[in-house]
Amino acid sequence: MANKDLRIWIGEIEAAGELQLVTGAGCEEEIGGIVDIYQRRMGNPAVLFDDIPGYPKGFRVLSNLL
Fold it and tell me: N or C: which end of the chain has fewer CB within 10 A?
């Protein structure tokens, strides 16, 4: 059954230990560099970027989903 909300899925992968939270990373260079590093090896957790400078609270970026 498909999840009804992405927030539910994020909560489930966090509970399973498959989510890495990164706060305060800049969108111009830091997020791209971190995503590049995480995608180089299979089995790395999903990465959720929060508190991105210059964006309102609640705007987040989720990467490495698969």
Answer: N
